[in-house]
Design brief:
alpha/beta, 6-stranded mixed beta sheet, 5-stranded antiparallel beta sheet, 9 helices, 23% strand, elongated, binds guanosine-5'-triphosphate, RagA/B, GTPase activity
Amino acid sequence: MKKKVLLMGASGSGKTSMRSLIFSNNPASLTARLGATIDVEQNHVRFLGDLILNLWDCGGQDAFMDSYLTTQRSTIFQHVGVMIYVFDVETHGMSKDLEYYRDCLDGLKNFSPDANVFLLVHKMDLARQPKNLTFDKKKRELEEASGESAVTVFGTSIYDESLYKAWSSIVHTLIPNAAVLSRHLTTFAAACSATEVILFERTTFLVIATSSPVVPDTLSPVGTEPGNLDRHQLDPTRYERTSELVKAFKHSCSRVREEFHSLEMELYNFTAVLDEMTRNTYVLIIVHDPTIETAALKLNIRMARRKFE
Ligand code: GTP
């Protein structure tokens, strides 16, 4: 199953940089060396067994944009699953960006009316005013420019985990059996007495699915007073931060010519095991019960593999 993803936006807004971080495991510091994209660069990324992402990174210089919107219009905008439009948060040419954006939205309406649209307010690290104010203002402006079209807006930067949050949400909409995966993970989490189980795609480390959230009560380890509950409050940014940390760790491994295989952590209040689940996925199990051994969790992963393959 092939899903076409259009990556569009003005030249220099950061499209190729985010692609190289997410799909090629390059560090943010190397993106300054990337040259401008000429016309469209197409990539096929195998994502979960039979799901292939067909990524169209569309160079954003005016001459290319004009050609996408005229002679190449049907080629560019047909069979699109998702369009991601990137806006530089501190751009000096917002009105021109919006004009191109509206025209792309129009092309999409004609040729792929069911496509999902995601807008990224990118380079948030360069925002001159407080980030939340800047983002809210931009979001309103973009929603207004989108008219009737339903759009989802994210604030992103290649220098923190926000990029993973946005891309995980985007990719999630393309996975046909995400709800089934989530159900299986919930069963698996219960079998492991886990607080939470998370499934990541192997190359990108984007989150594919998670077990259903636990009821706060079950977070309290046996024998602790209710007053200790707060200790186990789960951080809402935990998924994207894990993606970012593991990607950075994998990059460090590759620099010393080692391959990343798995990870085990036993801390004072929780245990974490990260291991291969299938050919295309990794699973992370988080347990707050100190009596559960990591070896038992690894055995459970081995036994569950066939079910998830
Ligand atoms: P075209 O290929 O011409 O369409 O441009 P592009 O949108 O692909 O831009 P590219 O990825 O080449 O990025 C341009 C510059 O922006 C590079 O120097 C990146 O290092 C920088 N950049 C990308 N993302 C960020 C970000 O989140 N923050 C900051 N500060 N710089 C970024």
